Description:
This protein is α/β, with parallel strands linked by helices. It has helices spanning 7-10, 17-47, 68-71, 94-100, 103-109, 125-128, 134-139, and strands spanning 58-61, 64-67, 77-82, 115-121, 141-145.
Amino acid sequence: MTNKESPDIKNHQVVSHEEWLAARIALLAKEKEFTRQREELARQRRALPWEQVEKQYVFDGPNGKETLPDLFGKHSQLIVYHFMFGPDDDEGCLHCSFWADSFNGASIHLPHRDVSFVAISRAPLEKIEPFKQPTIERRSTIMSERTPAP
């Protein structure tokens, strides 16, 4: 089906510039309110207390077995992306795969902000390796969690 055949495109309302502008201004007010609410929610999230991690997490990666503290490397902060690829799956989540294509761009900037990055999956490393792109392998780390789920 092409866009021209789509009922949403075919029957979509077409109005004058003045009508469109009025509708756009009304929507803009809602968008600005949503932005204010999102920023306040983000502020509240950042203000949450931290939780001490008691569980000993262990991961398999390109450098062998590593613990959660090892993943920080020389940085004080760690971003963990949960790449959904279960031990019984044949491939990773399509959405996670889409986002993984953009990991390299961020991985150049994160160390300058004292941040390490790792994508973690529950699939064994030998199932993950065939899907890693050469550029991801160089800059981003994709690990397999060895620790049993709680």
